Amino acid sequence: MKKYVFSLVLTAVVLFMFAACDSNTPSEARIEPTTATASYNQGPTDTDVANLSDAEIEAIYQKAVEAFGWFDVETMPLDTTYEAVCENGFVYWRVDFEGINTLADLEAYLGTLFSPEIISGLFADGISYREFDGVLYAIGASRGGNLTRGDEVHEIIRNIREDNSNIIYRVTVDVLNVDNLEEVVGFEIYDFVLSYVNGNWIFLNFNLVW
Predict the structure, then answer these.
(1) What is the phi/psi pair of residue 94, to 5°?
(2) Domain of residue 197, residue span
(3) Which is nearest to 84 in space by CA: 12, 18, 29?
(4) Which of 10, 33, 73, 167 has fewest C-beta within 10 Å?
(5) Pairwise CA distance, residues 140 & 193, whole Å
(6) CA 127 → CA 92, 118, 122, 159, 197, distances in Å?
(7) Is residue 3 a part of any domain in this protein?
(8) Of 73, 66, 60, 72, which is closest to residue 154 (Cα–Cα)?
(9) Can you tell me the distance from the alpha carbon of 113 to that of 98, in angstroms, rounded to the nearest whole number?
(10) Are residues 89 and 186 in the same domain?
(11) Average confidence (pLDDT) over 97-110
(12) 131 sits in which H/E element
């Protein structure tokens, strides 16, 4: 088991939104998320299912935290050296992340980490990420975390199915006293189901714990 400490700012900050910009923008193409299997295949092969190490499982979880955070905490890295695009009062900047250049790329990458239902939920607002002239753009936005969440303990629970194709990734988080943010007054437990589906280990349920 491993502990993580988070000290995050509570207030939300939204950048580059509702700024004035030229109405002449590149052509925009909206791509709705689908339930198709992602083209990425970064998971283990069938023969590796039973031998997935704790380190590999933890790495999958950390990638999931990062990717989920692109929708819940802070937009993907942006390249503001390119001209911004204005759409319906929102200002979009070009995404700067190796290997993810379009909405289809983003959806495919998410498909290596999450179930289709989770992915659909991430794209539900239809605003944060858009594609202009075949290039992925996003609104620059970020928020803080919950200061009342303290240490985390991570636990991997195997063999919840006979074929070992489902694993529980359990995160237990200390809850801190809101008055001093130091005294532990309780804890919360999150059980995330990691399942081997179509060549990838994906989470069937997921959220950030802070």
Answers:
(1) -70, 130
(2) 149-203
(3) 18
(4) 10
(5) 31
(6) 10, 17, 11, 40, 29
(7) no
(8) 60
(9) 17
(10) no
(11) 97
(12) strand 129-132
Q: How far apart are CA 100 and CA 66, in angstroms?
A: 14
Within a domain: 208? no
* Same domain for 155 and 131: no
**Is 191 found in the same domain as 127?**
no
Distance separating alpha carbons of residues 39 and 199, to the nearest angstrom: 10
Question: What residues have CB less than 8 Å from 174, skipping those under 6 apart?
Answer: 149, 150, 151, 152, 184, 186, 187
How far is the C-alpha of 210 from the C-alpha of 118, rounded, in Å? 18
Mean residue pLDDT of the chain comes to 80
Three-state secondary-structure class, residue 20: coil
Task: Looking at the structure, tell me whether residues 21 and 119 fall in a common domain.
Answer: yes
Q: 20-64: per-residue pLDDT in tens?
A: 455 444 443 333 333 333 333 444 444 455 578 999 999 999 999
Q: Which long-range contacts (CB under 8 A, 24 or more apart) does 12-15 make?
A: 12/142, 12/143, 12/144, 13/141, 13/142, 13/143, 13/144, 14/139, 14/141, 14/142, 14/143, 15/140, 15/141, 15/142
Q: What tokens were used for 125?
A: 């607002």
Is the confidence at residue 11, as pLDDT, over 50?
Answer: no
Does 35 map to a domain?
yes
Tokens of 5: 């400490």
Q: How confident is the model at residue 151 (pLDDT cuts 50, 70, 90)?
A: confident
Q: Which residues, at least 6 apart from 24, have a Cβ–Cβ distance to it below 8 Å?
A: none
Give the span between the Cα atoms of 76 and 60, in whole angstroms: 18
